[in-house]
Design a protein that fits this description.
Blueprint lengths: L2 H29 L6 H6 L5 H11 L5 H13 L13 H36 L4 H15 L2 H15 L14 H35 L2 H8 L4 H12 L1 H25 L5 H11 L2 H28 L2 H4 L1
Helix pairs in contact: 1-13, 5-6, 5-8, 5-11, 5-13, 6-8, 7-8, 7-11, 8-10, 8-11, 11-12, 11-13, 12-13
Amino acid sequence: MNRFMLQLIARRTGAGLLTLLIVSAVVFFITSLLPGDAAQLMLGQNATPETVAALRIQLGLDRPLVVRYFLWLWGMLHGDFGTSFANHLPVAQLVAQRIPATFELAATTTVVSVPFALVTGILAAMYRDTWIDRALVMSAMACVAVPEFLVATIAVLIFAVKLHWVSAMSLGGGEGFLNYLKTYALPVLTLCFVLVAQMARMTRAAIVEQLESPWLEMALLKGVSPLRAVLRHALPNAVGPIANAVSLSLAYLFGGVIIIETIFSYPGLASQLVDAVSNRDLPLVQLCVMLFAACYLVLLLVADVVTIAFNPKWRG
């Protein structure tokens, strides 16, 4: 990488850190607007006003909102994520118990969706303007248009209620490939439904752009087979756009996983976030949202870096 590319990456990184700082402020102030009083919810409706006021002082809820934000941010920067209002345990400990399950679900979805999307996009590009291409493109557009909760509901009705192949609840646990398949089949199927469609469409567009370039059209006229033209010539030059498409699609995964974990009762970070919002457990809500925002921004940064690294105009 030359100096100009490194400067672009440094700017993108700085913009990402600034965005994360803005997100932290938005998250903190919005969570403080949640209805109800955390101290009152912890003590119950029969608690006296004096007891509630004492607990508010103990939790620091009596301080001005701006002061509480900077104290929270300072603690976050030093690894102090606070204590759960509901469980009276360190928030970091509660989150650490759920992170592996969420990342395992995300990793399984990635392993299944990325190869399938690449193959689908390459096939659509190789047979562009044919019935195969039109069928794949129309299927992808239909998949993108259907929301995750509807896909999840239909999948439960077919595979869990009607066929009894898997359980409607993915509670995790169990050993062996069969138990693993039963646990992740419906959540992964639902998440892949939209991810594969998005990545396949972007992959097709990147490959078609390369196939329509003059030098590759000349190679095809000279007798190079379409498969060789795609795999040996078009695909290496389309790595940048394809990697960018994959990163952006996987960034979308962290939004869809919240819906999926809730529907299938999956014991991950997203379902923990939903429970924390219901219990008005502010420290837990804030840390969970910040983790999702950080993962999303990291994937966007990876997409930017890949685009910069594979852009021929910026290499020289």
